[in-house]
Amino acid sequence: MRIILTITLTLSSLLTFSQVHKLFSEALREDTSQTKKIELLNQIIALEPKNLDAYSVRGQIKNDLGDFSGAIFDYSKIIMEAPDSYTYLYRGDARYKMGNIEGAKLDYKKALELDKSLVEARYGLGTIKYGSGDYNAAFLDFNVLITNFYSNNKDFSKFDTFKKSLWMRALTYEALEQPYEALKDYTNIITYDHTSENYYNRGELLIKLKLYAEANKDFKKSVSLNKKNLFAYFYKGASNLYLGDFLKAISDFSEVIKYDSTDFDAYLGLAIAYKKLKDSEKAKQNFDMANQIISPDKTINSILDYSNTFWFKNEYFYFNHYINELVKLKKVNP
Predict the structure, then answer these.
(1) Mean pLDDT of all residues in the chain?
(2) Burial 282-291, CB ≥16 within 10 A → b, else e
(3) What pLDDT, on a 0 to 100 scale, did the predictor assign at position 9?
(4) Share in percent of the chain as helix, strand, coil (round to 5)
């Protein structure tokens, strides 16, 4: 009787193993839909409640679908049974996306305790510290990642994290009021990755430093790589305005408005450029358009009404002078 029972259990186990193998094979096929994959993985878990591979794959799919709470459930199941660094990392990412910053921070720290070389966990920690305003601590994390990349003979399997860390360290340098150190990092990023976004980021810092000619070159490169980068067009217009090339500034601001007719900063830029060219009619026309967008329901009476504009935030004294000039136009040509 005992022999028969053993044989029956063995056959049952083999049958379950065969079913699970078949279900897993189908779940891992690229042409299987995400919804179908979850159904198959549910079946596997029903057959083998401790199949941690099934929980892991299901957690990744849920994460990709935006079901972060479902992903956290699956990752937590694995951590309860057999914790590992990557599962802590993945649960940390899911918690971060759900806004559970402290939970994500704990998971990233646990991942690093299990594997100090897990760069994605250190990057996640650095990002959380930066977001909370702990810039010095964030700097240390990003610096470790960048230093390790170079000391490991530029391990390009970690290249994406390296690039992101350079960018975040640049932002951290800016927050720490070390703009020229930030500039070095933005330049380093461009050395590795010639994208419109990267030229734009460096140009934006250059314009803050009032290095308008250098900024203008970066914005030109940015729009040459992506003709739809309206931010780069705007900043190219602003740098042209500061450099005294008013016709080019008008062309750039007009390009922005062609795609976004509600961009009040571009209208203000046009108003200033036309005022510089002594075209009072067009200056007033664009000034009026900007004011209608900024304050559609009431008359603007103070420069403080422009507090959300690029010009007020970045070039207050320059802007204040031209606002006064443009207001005079309204009085002359009501």
Answers:
(1) 89
(2) ebbbbbebbb
(3) 36
(4) 80, 0, 20
Residue 82, domain extent: 27-116
Structure tokens at 322: 């031209």
Answer yes or no: are the C-beta atoms of 312 and 319 closer than 8 Å. Answer: yes
DSSP state of 156: G
Q: Which two tokens stand for residue 246?
A: 């008013």
Calpha distance 17→334 (Å, rounded): 85
Q: Which one has a higher pLDDT value, 61 or 28?
A: 61
* Residue 1 pLDDT exceeds 70: no
The rounded distance, in Å, linking the Cα atoms of 239 and 216 is 6
- Whether residue 288 is contained in a domain is answered as no
Determine, yes or no, domain membership for 44.
yes
pTM for this model (two decimals): 0.83
Q: Which amino acid is at 106?
A: L
Closest CA to 249 of 266, 263, 261: 266
DSSP track, 119-144:
HHHHHHHHHHHHHTT-HHHHHHHHHH
Q: Are 200 and 222 in contact (CB under 8 A)?
A: yes
Question: Is position 52 within any domain?
Answer: yes
CATH number at residue 71: 1.25.40.10
Establish if 104 belongs to a structural domain: yes
| 77 contacts: CB under 8 Å, gap ≥ 6 | 52, 55
As for how many domains the chain has, the answer is 1
Helix (H, G, I), strand (E, B) or coil at 89: helix
User: Which pLDDT score, from 0 to 100, does residue 228 have?
Assistant: 92
Higher pLDDT, 82 or 15: 82
> Helix or strand or coil: residue 153?
coil
Phi, psi of 213 (to 5 degrees): -65, -45
Q: What's the CA gap between 136 and 129, in Å, rounded?
A: 9
333 Rama sector, left if φ>0, alpha if ψ -120 to 50, beta otherwise: beta
User: 11 or 232: which carries more pLDDT confidence?
Assistant: 232
